[in-house]
Amino acid sequence: MRRARTSAMRLSALAGVAVLGMVLAGCSGSGGNSSDPQSQNLDGKGPITYVQGKDNSNVVRPLIAKWNKAHPDEKVTFKEQSDQADQQHDDLVQNFQAKNVHYDVVDVDVVWTAEFAAKGWLQPLTGSMAVKNSDLLKPTIATGNYNGTQYAAPQTSDGGLLYYRTDLVKTAPTSWDDMMKDCTIAKQAGIGCYAGQFAQYEGLTVNTAEAINTAGGTIVAKNGKTPTVNSPESKVGLQRLVDGFKDGNIPADAITYQEEQGRQAFEAGKLMFLRNWAYVYNLAKTDGSSVVKDKFAIAPLPGNGDGQPGASSLGGHNAAISVYSKHKQTAHDFVEFLQSKETQKFFLTQGSLAPVIGSLYTEPDLVKQFGFLPTLKKSIESAVPRPVSPFYPAVTKAIQDNSYAALKGDKTVDQALKDMSDAISAADTGS
Amino acid sequence: MSTETATPLSSKRPAPRASLKKRQHGQVRTALWLILPTMALLAVVIGYPIVSAVVMSFQKDAGLDPATGMFVQGGFAGFQNYTHWLFQQCTSASGTVACPPGSLGAQFWNAVGVTFLFTVVTVVLETVFGFWMAIIMNRAFKGRGIVRAAILVPWAIPTAVTAKLWYFIFATTGIANAILHVNVLWVSGEWSSRWAIIIADTWKTTPFMALLILAGLQLIPDEVNEAAKMDGASTVQRFWRVTIPLVKPALMVAVLFRVLDALRIYDLPAILTSGGGGSGNATTTLSILVVDQIRQGPNSASALSTITFLIIFLVAFIFVRFLGANVVRTQESQQKGTL
User: Fold this and answer.
1) Residue A238 · residue A406 · CB < 8 Å
2) Which of A197, A398, B295, B317 is most buried, judged by most C-beta within 10 A?
């Protein structure tokens, strides 16, 4: 048995290595700015690289081909990452830490912008780097703003919509309370009334933030750090969701719902109201399994009762320029190209990505093809970005865990908001 | 010695002996050179990561400079990262406080408890079922090959796929609820989510246990059992007095392997329940906590992974030192034929 003994030892050593190896993969010291790369290479022109996650609907390659044709001396190379958000994030972190000069223009999820900006990796879009575009939807600009400085330019967006059954309710409710009143209709029809994304994941942060923002509350202050969530307004917002579960207006299953489960339930006719993103619209109209094809419509999220629509959270991505880039002028021009009307239209028609340019939402031929556009515009116009914080992973966890506990009735709303606030405040130390 | 040197016949002897010594010496040196690449490799792939992680665990994570809103290096932390986990202390604006719910720091002891719960329950279940399967597989009957292959199927499926399969089985509208005629929200309840993990893990790794036990069973000569039968031992007596002692060495190794494996369980709960359930962390194991922490602060994550490593190492040590000593004795007495 001696052999077994040594192999057991070896195994335990290996187990240790495996655990430690995981850690190593995620870190190698954080970057500082030694010689202020922010002021260098501002007028550099030449070939650059554009970094983005997997280009599933093949929109980036044709765009780059078009750019390269017009700019033979400033060619753009496409560096395609995986299609997993976490992997994209970690790939960017590693390359920024290595000060890779070939990651010129990067595509960042709206919730990563503050972290990268605070690490000093993103070129402030000020002075000659400013990206001028008067046609942008306002809330999308805020997602790229950290501590009063613009670090990233909105590239694609997305907002929440209320899907409702036109055969059961004549007009969409404009406030949360009206929607809850309509729930008697759903009860008579024997189906669930309302659902969003309430499983414990990023979707719950989105839904909680929407409830809180709609009621007039906020989660963090402008500095991205000080928690402001423990307020009477936030309490009203979170209480609405908690009561929804308590009354059965939100079916108990919904605590396990991500986007897809909600969509499937709605398409199967089991829900009267659904909060989801714009992608559901065309699917619910065309899916073979959808029994509600001609029986639903969309509206902005229900509001606070003052006639205004609810405050949606924002999805989407921003384009940012690396401070380590050697050709920032070209990078800047390319970002403007990504934001141009023509490109944005191409994003929409080829990739079904919601544009950041307001005027596209009202073009008749586009509206015909994408019926959700006018409503989506209203949703984005009144949207509030998710907390712009350099500690976003900790902030979103603080929101998810405590909101989830409140929805399940394990915690009072007051306690949940207090814990949420404390946990956000403890996030600052990074530990 | 003196007589030897006196006899002229033996005067030739020292020469070959010296060359033997020399040869042995040379062999040792050659052996050293031969091991050297392995040692160098081990230093790089095992030594460096461990040392580097330990060094990192004594550094503070980067924090925000309130004036500029930019991250600055944290500096030396002492044991702060360790006390952060072990005593669940967080620093906030108002100094050191107990980590509030919703921060990773508040989850350490919960994660330790969950990890050990999974380990104990799954290993016990797997040992019992594994033994049963091994006894079946050990019998000679028609179609034994097919049964053996069938039992091994769950082990052959990648864990990620297993986790997804059980995720669908345990969905609200899944087959588990349909067959049991209940409406349990498996992945969101506190204990139901833990049972979901335990069931899926037992289903998946029992074959591994069965295979190792089967190897042990096959080493038992038929004569021993037959002799016991002749002596009038009942089936139960033969199982406890003959089979168990003889299969024990193989069994202990199998249990050790499974315990170490279960202590670092990550993929199954990560995919099946995302570490959720209950108030949100009913199935968060230590490894899940480490991975969550990496994105929030790698140095603190290093401290956590060092703690995890020490826990696993301690368990392995206890196993080998105390239970393993037994294993060796069993085998020695077996060889001497005193058993």
Assistant:
1) yes
2) A398
Nearest to A253 among B106, B185, B292 (CB): B185
Q: What are phi and psi of B328, to 5 degrees?
A: -65, -45
The answer, for A248 touching chain B at a CB cutoff of 8 Å, is no
Q: Which fold has domain A38-158+315-381?
A: D-Maltodextrin-Binding Protein; domain 2 (3.40.190)
> Which among B60, B61, B101 has CB closest to A402?
B101
pLDDT digits (tens, 9 = 90+) for A1-31: 444 444 444 444 444 444 444 444 434 333 3
Tell me how far apart the alpha carbons of residues A223 and A429 are, in angstroms, rounded to a whole number: 15
Q: In this predicted structure, what is the pLDDT of residue B274?
A: 83
Q: What's the CATH code, domain B104-338?
A: 1.10.3720.10
B16 to chain A, minimum CA–CA distance in Å?
Answer: 35
Cα–Cα dist B259/B237, whole Å? 29
Q: A106 or B137, which is more confident?
A: A106
Query: Is there a contact between A393 and B281 if contact means CB atoms under 8 Å apart?
Result: no
DSSP states of B112-175: HHHHHHHHHHHHHHHHHHHHHHHHHHHS--TTHHHHHHHHHHHHHS-HHHHHHHHHHHTSTTSH
> Is residue B313 helix, strand or coil?
helix
State pLDDT tens for residues A180-219: 999 999 999 999 999 999 988 899 999 999 999 999 999 9
Q: What is the value of ipTM here, to two decimals?
A: 0.71
**C-alpha–C-alpha distance, residues B32 and B30, integer Å:** 5
Q: Give A61-80 pLDDT, tens digit per residue.
A: 999 999 999 999 999 999 99
Percent of chain A at pLDDT exceeding 90: 72
Can you give the pTM of this predicted structure? 0.79
pLDDT attached to residue B17: 63
Min distance A411 CA to chain B CA atoms (Å): 9
Q: What is the DSSP letter of A153?
A: E
Task: Tell me the pLDDT tens digit for each residue of A76-131.
Answer: 999 999 888 888 999 999 999 999 999 999 999 999 999 999 999 999 999 889 98
- Cβ neighbours of A89 in B, within 8 Å: 295
Interface check A23 vs B, CB under 8 A: yes
Residue ranges of the domains in chain B?
A: 104-338
Domain A161-313+391-429 has CATH 3.40.190.10: yes
Distances (CA, A) of A346 to A66, A71, A309, A406: 12, 19, 29, 43
Name residues 10-39 of chain B within 8 A of A (Cβ).
none
In sequence order, the 6+-apart residues with CB closer than 8 A to the CB of A392 are A111, A112, A114, A115, A386
Candidate from A400, A401, A425 with C-beta closest to B92: A425
| B177 near A CB under 8 A | no
Please, what is the angle between helix A392-407 and helix A413-426, to 10°?
A: 170
- A38-158+315-381 and A161-313+391-429 share one CATH topology? yes
User: Which residues fall within 8 angstroms of residue B162, CB to CB, at 6 or more apart?
Assistant: B154, B200, B203, B204, B268
- Closest in B52, B70, B188 to A118, CB measured: B70
pLDDT digits (tens, 9 = 90+) for B154-212: 999 999 999 999 999 998 888 999 999 888 888 888 899 999 999 999 999 999 999 99
B165 touches chain A (CB under 8 A): no
Q: Which helix (H) or strand (E) holds A273?
A: strand A271-276
Cβ contact A313:A237 at 8 Å: no
Partners of A78 in the β-ladder: A50
Chain B residues with CB inside 8 Å of A227's CB? none
Answer yes or no: do B105 and A2 touch at CB < 8 A.
Answer: no
Q: Where are the domains of chain A?
A: 38-158+315-381, 161-313+391-429
Under 8 Å CB pairs connecting chains A and B tally to: 230
Please report residues of A whose CB lies closer than 8 A to that of B287.
19, 22
